[in-house]
Amino acid sequence: MAKTVLAVDDDADYLAQLEIQLLAAGFEVWTAESVGQAKEILDQRRPDLAVVDLMMEHMDDGFTLCHDIKARDASIPVILVTGVAGETGLDFDASTKEERSWIKADALLDKPVRFEQLRREIGKLLKE
Amino acid sequence: MDTLRVLVTDDEAEMRRAVDRALARFTVALPDVEGEVCFAVEQAESGEQALEKIAVQPPDILMLDYKMGGMTGLDVLDQLSKQEHEMLTVMVTAYASLETAVVATKRGAFDFIAKPFTPAELKDTVRKAAAHLLMQRQARKLAQEKRQVRFQFISVLAHELKAPLGAIEGFLQALTNPQVRANDEACAQMIGRCLIRTEGMRKMIHDLLDLTRIESGAKKRELAELDVVEMVHRSIETLTPLATERNVRIEVRTDGPIPMMADQGEIEIIANNLLSNAVKYNKEGGRVEVKLSADGEEAVLAVTDTGIGMTAEETARLFRDFVRIKNDQTRRIMGSGLGLSIVKKLALLYGGDATVWSEPGEGSTFTVRLKRNLGGEPAAAAERAVEA
């Protein structure tokens, strides 16, 4: 059976791209355009993995959603996608264990995401 | 209260003490810069000693005797001209003549006072110097703030331009994937989105140029008599396709032509922005009412929509550069975030204003008031617009 991915981004175009690429790679994709929509989906189903955009309506929506997903089921891998580093000069990554424990995401990717890279991260996290 | 440091350089001790006494309890109120200053006097008995003290910490005002044993006042001025400082020098001399004043001013002195002088004359000279210094400081502060605003603007602009570029790049990348290309319908959709985002980017650059022209005053304004009602009808024509697509009805209420002196391009920008917003942010099947009236010297354009509306917190930010209200309902609506900021600046340029009333879920009314005959003070109005 196809693995399921929850994709969350408030930019409809980025979300569409994620969906197209993930579908082409053989995943089943559930899309959400906001934290609210994502939570509605999570109330009903458990995805095998989640890809979450960091900055949505509020600066920290992505972080909040990561926490929420991990609180529901800590075994769901979460990839956090961010344009933050490039745009604001803010620098953070999840290379050390300590940083990962704070961010609550299993991987961080910079926008624009290269799909092959995203595919590799997903592969690693799903231990394909 | 600010304290300005005054360094009195004179080889006569009596002279130095006299200045000290005169300025000890002297304060100057400077209403122009909303400041008040007092003075702390230090003394130097020769030009050499003055230079040493200045090297350690330059005073704000240097009172410099023209004729001293050793270095003269002019020698000190020469030395100081090689350094960078914001200190003001007041030359003091017993030989009051136009010639010495000219020489001293040429070498960088700010003002000139003749010996013997009364405490009142001294205070008057010091007051002038203090006012000049504080004005200078405030001008510098304003320039700094302006740079900051500019920098912020450019950062946001870069972000806003990168978003569509990133979206287009993502679609193009997806299209390099053969599996994705196999799906014709998805391809057509992606190409369509690329075109829409490109158009959005073009619109943003267009708005940005409008904004820059208005703010810099670089564009020559061509004021001619035109009819606001006719301009609005033209704007409605260009918006009809969008309104039809969204099933939004536009109604105009007016008692007849409203002539005014204006730049046609500017009125077009105002009408197009307000009307396209009223259609874009409306509900499917909604209504737009445009009310045009002449109120004394002013033309009043009020555009009411039956759209999504805004909270007070949202309307408070609305007229600023790059502000777009982000929520579930606005996410799919394209916009540069510059339109209303441009409308506001233009309205101020016409001695008027742009305001908004809004109720979440019910709709909004944008009202623009414009002076119909801007004979009076276009320069002052332009300045207000730039400041806003």
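The first strand of chain A starts at residue 4 and ends at 8.
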